[in-house]
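User: We ran a pulldown and think these components assemble together. Before we commit to crystallization trials, I'd like a predicted model of the whole complex to look at. Sequences follow.
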Amino acid sequence: MKNGVFISELHDIGKLVDRQALDKLGIKISGHAFHDFDFSLIGISRPSSPNWYSQYLEDDNLKPPDKDLLNSSEATTLIPDPKVRADVLLTKIADGISASITRLELLGKHVQRGQIGEGVHKIWNPEFYQKQGKHWAAFADVSSLKRMLQYIDSCEDYKDFFRDFWDYLVLTPEDKKAPGNIVSLLAHLELVGKVYRILKKHSFLQFRDNQHSLIYNQQPIKSVREACGHIDPTQQAGKWIFRTVFCDIGFPQTFSRLQDLNVFKKRADIIRTFSESEDTKDYVLFFTEDFLCLFIPNEDELKIQDLLRPFIENGFTIDYKEMEAELNLLTSSMERAYRGFHSLASNRHLKLYYKRATLNLPEKLPSQLCDSCQIRQGKERIKEQTREWLCDTCYSIRAMGEPAREYAEWEDKGLKAAWMKITLNQVDLPEILHRLFDKYVDSFTAMLHVRSNDKTILKESFRPLAVQIDFVKDYKSLLQAFKKRVYEIKDDKGDSLFTKETFLYPIDGYDEFGIFKVHSSKTLLKVTDIFTGLLEEYFPECVEDSPIKFALSVAQVKYPYQEHWRFLSKPKDAFNIQSPTTRLTLSLRQYKTLRDKIGQENVRLSHFLNRLVQIQIETHSDMIVMLEVCDKNNKQKFPAILELLEDGLTPQQILNYYKLIHEEDTHE
Amino acid sequence: MNKMNKTFLHLELRTQAVAIGERVKGGTFRPCIETIPTSTLKGSFRDHFGLQNVKAIGFFREETYEKTIFTYSPFDTLLKTSKVPISLEYLKPKEGFSMVIADIHVVKDETTEKLIKYLPAEVSIGALKSKGFGRCEIRHVGEVKPALKVGYLKGRLLEEESESFGIVEIIKACYGYLFYPTSRVSGLYKRALFEGSIIKGPEILIEEVYEYD
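Assistant: Here's a predicted model for the assembly, 881 residues in total across the polymer chains.
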C-alpha cells in the first residue's frame, strides 16, 4: 500500500462517472464505487493509496451497519491498515448522517423510489440543471476514467478535489434516483468531509486486548450502529452524542452614529476568520453574515462558551439552539424532530435547548451605562462638544472607520434615503424546505409512479441539512447578483440610476445591507423589481413561501438610524417596507399583485381607499367593505380593488402601498 | 397550595398618552417600550402612595394602542438654552379606543395589600410628565393565582426579584440593566431579565410557551 492521506470526500468520486456512456464503450461498472472493478478492462493497476479504500464503503461485506469494521476478518482482509479501517468507519458514519434522505434500506423496508434523473434537482429551482446547459459527468470515456482512478491515488487535499471538479460537483446529485437527487454532490461531500474531520479530531484509535476500537468521550465503538444507533428511534441506542447548533450572532449596540455600523464589519470579520481558521472551520457547516450552523461534540468534549469565545469577547451575543443527540437522530429540522421523537416511546438521547452565550455581566453597575450597548460600564468621551458615555468595546467599534461617509452629505440636500436589508430567515428555511420536498415527492413527474405509502415514508425520512448548504450557496449568489444589477438600472434617459456613491454598501462584503438615495417612488420600484426578478430567477418555487425577506425603510436622511434598523432586522414577511407614516408587510405574490394593479396616481382611488379603511375601522366587518367595493359604480370605477381584496389584501394594505408609491419626489 | 404559586393583585391602568422610554442615548430619537418594567412601577407606587419596594410589572394591551411621535426641544434650565429637538415615541389610543389600557400584576404581600385601599387613584409614569404624558388611572380588578408555565418572559424585571415574582427556573437569561434608585438623587443599575429570556414561572409573565429542554 502506498503512503498518503485519507480524503473522505473521494469516496463518492465515482458518482461523477457516466456509467451509461462507458457501458456503450464496453466498460461495465456496477454502482458508483470501484472496489470490485475489473481494472484489466482499462489496462491499469488497482490504486493502493489510503484514499482508495474509501471505495470499500459500498462493499457488500462491509455494508451492514452492525459490521465490526475495525476487527472483522472481512474488514482486515480488504483493508489491512487499522488506521485506514478507522478512517473508512468514520467516513461511513459521516456519510450516513450527511444523507438528505435516511438510508431506508437500513430499516429493513423496501421503499419504492422515483426515476433516475439527469443532474441535480433543486427543489426551489427545478430547472436549475437544464438552465446551466452543461453535462453533469466529469468522466464519460475510458481515458477520463483512467485519469479518475489515478487521481484517487494522487490527490492529497480535498480542496484540490473540489477545485478540480467544482463544475461537475455542482451539477451532479448526491443520489441520481428521485427524490434523493435534490442535493448537489458538492454540498453532500462538503458535509461528509467536515463531519468526518470533526469525528476524527475528537476520537482516537485504541488497541487493547487484541481488539481495535475508536474512542470518543470514553465511549468505544467498532461499528456504525454502535456509534450512531439504529435508524429506527425505538431500537438500539448509539453511544456517540454530538450536537448541531444554529447560532444567531447578535449585538447589543444601538445605532446613533454612522460609525456604529462598523459592528457589522467586526461581526463579518470574526465569522469569516472563524469559518476559515484551521482550528474551527470544520465545525462550521455553513454560515451567513449573522448566522452559523455548527456540528460539534458534546459539552464534556468542547465547551460552547470556549468555542465561541472570539464572538463573546468582542461583545456579541449568541442566541443558539442546540440539538444534542445520538448521531442517527441528529438533524437540522430540530423542532420537528424533537416533537416526532417525543411522540414515541423511546429512551434514546435527543435533547433540544435554546440558550444564549454572552459575557458574564456583573450583578450591579455603579453608574453610567454605555450609551450604545447598555450592558457595560461607560466612560466619558467628548468629541466636537458632544459628551457621550461609551464602553471600550463600543468606542473601539466607532474607531474602526467611517462607513457610508457620503450619507451624511445627503442630509444637507434634504434628500430621502432607503435603508435596505435582505435576510435569510434560518428558522423558516428548514420548514420551507420540508414543504418543498413534500411537494416534490407528491407531484413531480419523476415520482408519479411511486406508491402513496412509500411517498409518506420518503417524506418522513427527509433530512434537510445538506439541502440547506446548497440553498445558502444560492442565496449568496442572489446577493451578489443583486449588487451587480442595481448598478445596471437605467433611469428614463438611459443613464445609470445609481453609482457607488448613490447606492452604498457601507460595509465591504456585507451584501445583505445597503443604503440608497430615493428621488422618487419610481426609484424604489426599480430596486424592488430587481429583487423580485432575482427571487424568481434563483428561487422560483419560493415566490409563494419565501425564507428570503426583503425590507426597505424609507425616510429623510436624518431619520434615526436605530429605527431603520429596528424595522430591517425583524422582517415579518417576504416584502416589508416602511416610511415614517406607513408600514407595509406582504408576501411576494401580494406585492406583485399590487405592483401590477395599482398604477398611476388617481385622487379618486385615494379617496375610495381611505373610505374603505374608515368603514373597516368603524364596522370591523370585511363583509361591509366588500359590499361597498361591489357597489355597481365602485366596481366600474375601481375594478382592481375587488381583485386585490379577493387576493387576501386588506384595504389598509392597499392604501399603504398607494401612499408609498405616490410620495412626493425630492430633488437635489 | 403549591407554595410556588404566587398570588398577584390585578390592576388595570388607563391613560391617554404614555412614553416609557427605552434607554437609548446619544441620539435624537427616544423609542418607547410596550411593557411597564418593575423599576417604573416601583418608583411610581413609592412616590404616590409611599409604599416601598412594591413588586409589580405591567403589559399594555396590544389592541388598545398605537405608537406615534412627539417632537420637543429640551430646555437646559442651568444654561437657559434649548437643546437639539428630540423625537419621543409614545403610545396613544388606537382608533376605536378612548384609552390605552394596561394590565398590572402586583405581587401580593403585606405592603401591597395596603395598596388596594388607595385605589382607584391617579398616578404618573414614564417620561415628559410635565407635558401631560403618563397620567394614568389605576383601579383594582381582583386577584389572580396563575399556574406555572415554561415560556418566554414578557416584560423586564430585576433578576434578584425573580423569585418574588414566582419564577422558579431561568432556562435562558437575556440580561439587560434596570435603574435602581438608592436615594432621591442617585442610584445604580441592576442586572435584569429582559424579553427573550426563557423562564418557568407564573403564566401571566409568559409571552409564548417553550416546549423543549
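The mean pLDDT of chain A is 91. That may be worth checking against your pulldown data before setting up trials.

User: Thanks, that helps.
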